[in-house]
Structure prediction request, 159 residues.
Amino acid sequence: MLRFVRHLLAALALSAAFSAPAGAQPREVLATDFTVQLFMTEKGELSPDIFKLEELAVHNFTVSGKGFEGGKFSGFLLRVEFRAKGEKFAEGLQGQVLLREVKTKKVLRTLSFSDVYVGTSGVSYRAALVHNLDCTIMQAELYSGGKRYTKELPFHCGE
Prediction:
């Protein structure tokens, strides 16, 4: 029960941190989506976005998918998309990604994105390279502007 209350309080704190106060202007820069690309160790290149791969299979540091050669990987690039209406610079925390173990709900890593500039195109990206979480089934949760976007990272390991 205590664990549930802690998770509930953490979720409420995140929601409050990314919500505009009553009467305040809505955020001008919002994180709207994210991708994950694995670092392929044999070629030193990044994989395609794993959320777009059909028949994705990840097991024991090896990835494969329909139309993708695959192979061994180590670490991944998490890329967050920010959008605004025209050119904007937003100071302070603009988005946060929590990497949470699916089974225990424990937060394994918190990635924060602050002071974001979006050019005249209305879109900008920020990225973080994540190490040492290649063998964990996780949920990635993006928080920005009172919204939450969730995707699963199915990094299976074992027999």
Q: What stands out?
A: The first strand starts at residue 30 and ends at 40. The radius of gyration is 17 Å. Residues 27 and 130 are 27 Å apart (CA to CA). Residues 4-9, 11-24 have pLDDT under 50 and may be disordered.
